[in-house]
Specification:
The complex is a heterodimer of chains A (about 300) and B (about 290).
Chain A lengths: L4 H4 L6 H9 L14 H29 L19 H9 L2 H32 L5 H13 L2 H14 L6 H5 L6 H11 L4 H9 L4 H12 L1 H16 L3 H6 L8 H11 L4 H21 L1 H14 L1
Helix pairs in contact in A: 3-15, 4-15, 5-9, 5-12, 5-14, 12-16, 14-15
Chain B lengths: L4 H21 L2 E3 L6 E3 L3 H8 L1 H31 L7 H9 L6 H12 L10 H6 L15 H26 L3 H9 L4 H29 L3 H6 L13 H6 L9 H25 L9
Antiparallel strand pairs in B: 1-2
The chains are: A mainly alpha (about 300), B mainly alpha (about 290).
Chain lengths: ~300, ~290
């Protein structure tokens, strides 16, 4: 758009708007019509900075505490007047965090890869295949979306226990290898594939799996990226389930490991905060790298209805 | 149907079967050790629902939802609108407002535990804050039955803020600019445009966030486990339903019947709540064309 219609139709008397057009040199970025200026702009910045300070406050106190040695953590908790990396090192080794991060990573990667594979297969079946009982199968998949995790864990604990999977990666991962959410996400996007594409593949004698691998999946890569990040975060952030199936101190995930660190070091907040910082860093990095997938993944649920 | 099999097996074994079995277990009455159980029929659910312990957990959970959901929604919308103008440095502010989405429940809760602990915590050791709010040190907001749930709620609102902010921001960006400009031409000021254009157009987003936040509030476990352990005792002031079922000191922890029954009641309550929200509010939400 070369000219801004609101300025053209601005009623006489609102000289500001016309003046803004006149003042804007050609090629400059077009100003938004209710761009704040002067005091309003300053006020907005002040508000943005103040709110940012409040939002970041818990993060700030955490980092300040994590960098303070010994007793100093109890003095001036808002002032970074001491600096050491010893507490972080101590939390890493005595809190066993390296092992816990690795455990979380293994479980989250297995869950993510499996959820993508199972969702792509079942999403494809629901979107493009006809088979007897499809309606019932679909209804059952929908039903699983309504069941909160907390309603299933009592029995899942018994199942995992009877399989001998307490304190194991299988116990942490296997109940979450499939997701109806992912199935629907993939089904929705597969349904938008042009019919011609599928017919052409059929004529060329490419089977379902070949079509999936070479044509369908590459076409819906953004959706799969969003699902991957969503699955990874959900698995990584699990708290209740690891606390139920892990009681061996070496087998914790980073979340249940943080709990252990906190409960056994109540009088050393700097050590616990150091552990918290270490636990938070990997996800912070992941989210910075995959911002776009995050927004896509989170909003996918919102537009589903 | 080989393609459906992997998903079907996992969802069947780890979601549908456990739900069915929990419904069956829930009508079992067990002895003290939880090893001998016999059927007590549907009455078991009624008794459980009416029990003092479950009623307390339900009241605590409902209060928690009322403390967190409206405030969380309002803050999310407020921040998203605040950061929706074309300003220099806007992406930095957006990154900050989104940042709490990167915290797991354990990370967020431990940050707030350090802030709020009465003896070793940060706020208790800041003099001016202490002078302003003596109760932060004695008895401590997490230890006072009157404030414990509110303190946990603050932590939870903070942790969910990034999620709400991201969704509402995405919702704002999908509102056509023409609508705002047309309203402005008609003489509507900023406040008027917010109520007449922004909020109605955000309807579907807000409904989704409302349902998700309410569901999360009813599933609250980690915050309670790390911040209060369900206490202060003996009132169980912060024992949510999920903590009542799974908590370390739960009175029903060794009773599979009552545990499963409570979990099923949680499922039914959540189902009813979501249906209510989607039906009641969904009707009035404008979904475009």
């Amino acid at each position: 758009m070369a000219t801004d219609p609101t300025f053209v139709v601005a009623p006489a008397g609102s000289g500001e708007a016309t003046a803004a057009v006149a003042r804007t040199p050609p090629g400059a970025r077009r100003k938004h019509f209710d761009q704040p200026t002067g005091w309003r702009l300053a006020g907005r910045y002040a508000l943005l900075v103040a709110v940012s300070a409040i939002v970041l406050f818990p993060v700030y106190t955490t980092i300040v505490a994590a960098l303070k040695p010994g007793e100093q953590v109890f003095r001036n908790p808002l002032v970074p007047d001491a600096f050491t990396l010893d507490v972080l090192r101590d939390a890493w080794s005595s809190g066993n965090l390296g092992q816990y991060l690795l455990n979380s990573l293994i479980v989250a990667v297995v869950v993510t890869v499996a959820q993508i594979a199972t969702s792509v297969l079942s999403g494809y079946a629901f979107a493009l295949l006809d088979f007897p009982g499809k309606g019932i199968a679909f209804a059952l998949f929908v039903a699983t979306l309504l069941v909160p995790l907390e309603a299933t864990l009592v029995v899942n604990f018994d199942t995992v226990d009877s399989l001998g999977w307490i304190n194991s990666y299988q116990g942490l991962a296997v109940p979450f290898l499939a997701t109806a959410f992912g199935t629907f996400l993939v089904r929705q996007v597969f349904m938008t594939l042009p019919r011609d594409l599928i017919d052409a593949a059929a004529i060329d004698g490419v089977g379902h799996l070949g079509f999936l691998r070479h044509v369908a999946v590459p076409l819906v890569r953004p959706t799969i990226g969003a699902l991957a990040l969503f699955s990874f975060l959900s698995s990584w952030n699990q708290y209740l389930w690891p606390n139920l199936v892990i009681n061996d101190d070496r087998r914790h995930t980073v979340q249940s490991g943080l709990r252990l660190l906190s409960k056994s070091n109540l009088d050393e907040p700097n050590l616990v905060m150091a552990g918290t910082v270490i636990a938070a860093i990997p996800i912070a990095i992941v989210l910075v790298l995959f911002q776009r997938q995050l927004v896509r993944g989170l909003t996918a649920g919102a537009v589903k209805g | 149907m080989g393609m459906l099999a992997p998903s079907a097996v996992i969802l069947g074994v780890f979601i549908l079967y456990p739900l069915g079995r929990a419904v069956w277990l829930g009508q079992q009455r067990c002895n003290t050790f939880g090893d001998v159980c016999r059927s007590n029929g549907f009455d078991q659910y009624v008794d459980l629902f009416r029990s003092v312990e479950f009623q307390n957990a339900l009241a605590v959970t409902a209060k928690f939802a009322l403390l967190t959901v409206p405030l969380g929604l309002a803050l999310g919308v407020g921040l998203a609108v605040l950061a929706d103008k074309y300003l220099r440095g806007l992406s930095a502010f957006r990154a900050i407002f989104s940042s709490t989405v990167a915290t797991s429940v354990a990370v967020a809760s431990l940050m707030w535990l350090f802030l709020l602990q009465p003896s070793v915590g940060a706020l208790a050791n800041v003099e001016f804050f202490n002078a302003l709010f003596p109760s932060v040190k004695d008895p401590g907001w997490l230890r006072d039955p009157g404030t414990a749930l509110t303190a946990v709620a603050m932590s939870s609102v903070w942790a969910n803020l990034g999620f709400t902010f991201i969704l509402v921001t995405a919702g704002l960006q999908s509102i056509p600019k023409d609508l705002h400009e047309a309203a402005a031409v008609d003489g509507a000021g900023g406040v008027r445009r917010f109520w007449a254009v922004t909020l109605p157009m955000l309807g579907p987003t807000l409904l989704f966030v409302l349902v998700v936040l309410t569901t999360r509030a009813f599933q609250t476990y980690g915050e309670i486990d790390l911040l209060t352990g369900g206490g202060p005792q003996p009132q169980d002031s912060t024992t949510t339903i999920t903590y009542f079922v799974y908590g370390q000191n739960s009175p029903i922890r060794s009773d599979p019947g009552l545990q499963a029954g409570s979990a099923v009641l949680l499922f039914v309550i959540l189902l009813a709540l979501s249906a209510l929200q989607l039906r009641g509010i969904g009707k009035r939400v404008h979904y475009g064309d």
